[in-house]
Amino acid sequence: MEMVSIMIKKYRIWTIVTSLILILVLIIGILMFTLDDKKFKMDMEVIKEEKNNYNIEINYPVFNNKNVNKKVNKIIDTEKDNFKDKIKNDEEAKNELNIDYGYTSKDSIYSIHIRTYSYTGVDNEYYHNDEMIYINEENNQEIKIDELINDKIYEDIKDDCYEYLNNNKTINLYEENVLKEALDNLKDFALLSFSQDEMYVIIPPYNVSDSEIDINIKIKYNKIKNDLNSEYFSFTEEEEEEVDNTITARERDLKQFKDKKLLAITFDDGPNYKVTKGLIDELDKRNARVTFFMVGNRITSQTELVKDIYTRGHTIGSHSYDHKRLTKLEDDKLKEEIETTNEIIKNITGEDVKFLRPPYGSYDKELLDKIDMTFILWNVDTEDWQSRNKDKVCENIINHASDGNIILLHDLYQTSVDGALCAIDKLKEEGYEFVSIEEMAKIKGIDLKTHTAYRYIKETT
After folding, report:
1. How much is the CA Rg of the chain, to the nearest whole Å?
2. Which CATH number is correct for 144-243, 3.90.640.20, 2.40.30.20, 3.40.50.720, 3.60.21.10?
3. Do the beta carbons of residue 101 and residue 84 sit within 8 Å?
4. What architecture (CATH level 2) is domain 38-141?
5. Phi, psi torsion values for 356, nearest 5 degrees
6. What pLDDT is stored for residue 36 in this prediction?
7. Is the pLDDT of residue 382 over 70?
8. How does residue 426 score in pLDDT terms, banded at 50, 70 and 90?
9. Sheet of 125-136, strand order
10. Is the pTM of this model over 0.85?
């Protein structure tokens, strides 16, 4: 009996200890989940609809904050409902709704810029709307602009804004009298975006004219640091002084690729800091270069990243400013889409933009004749935006690998990057090398002509 009693006691002790361990594990799990729920996270979702009378493409941010997501979803739902209500009796005209976003970050503050553009053929109306959301990464909460700045900032940046507009040809697209009103009332008209190197003053077009192009004006922090709340922003000596950020592209010896099989991987619709930065870091490890066809309204919110891409020797081309179907635009709108994007890129790299990838691959002879650039299309479509599957992306690239091919991907999705890197690793074992469009043409001795579209780059015999 004594032995049985001892065994029962041991069993009870073991049961209590096990229960305590399970309770402890459960508590730790709950705490970790709670802490993780408070961390700032940002992902992206995509909505695409294509009907006989309209196209909808929406790229929108998703956060680890229900209230912010609710705010973003309300913006999207409102814009979609208004758009569909306008065209409900229009069965023929090609209507378009595009919602996209960009973001910058400075210290713990993220500036999220959500842009809506639509065209409704039933009333031949262009519509544009801009929203800015600020999130404090430290507590994962939305913060209002008035908490980040004092009102004196608008007076302190006015002269810089005037100087920029007087020296910038894009200003000719706007009506001078309404633009002056916007500059004289910046607090009511402008949005502010805080990046690592400078602040951007964004004057949305819906406030100043019928244009769809934002005006983006860079302001160095040394001009406005006293107007920013020191609780959220801090500055290094470099940021407080004027710094020469001249950059030079890193060249590499192309003789190493002579007699090699070459592939040109291209990424559309970016840049997207979280995904694109990781991509170029991994490409460096593989001695691989690619080509980025960037959307203009995304570039201005990520200039540091674009500088980095250029410095590392990748080719940067234009994918228009707002990702519109260029064949549907009037000449003045077409000029805005192309010239504004080219100017934004040149202001960062110092080089003229040579290459254009028309959104949706949509072009015709008339468009080719109008634009003094080289059109770069593709002959391998990985359909990465649809599958969102690393293995399928990798398989599509490998199965369609052939010297001189141009491969279409999008650096909005981590699965696209992972699939591309997977394919690069495997195809390098088969003797392939990965070069930019510009490099491929040089290696093959092919002169890429303007007013001409290329789906691949191969020697003709």
Report:
1. 26
2. 3.90.640.20
3. no
4. 2-Layer Sandwich (3.30)
5. -125, 135
6. 45
7. yes
8. very high
9. 42-50, 54-63, 95-106, 109-120, 125-136, 141-143
10. no
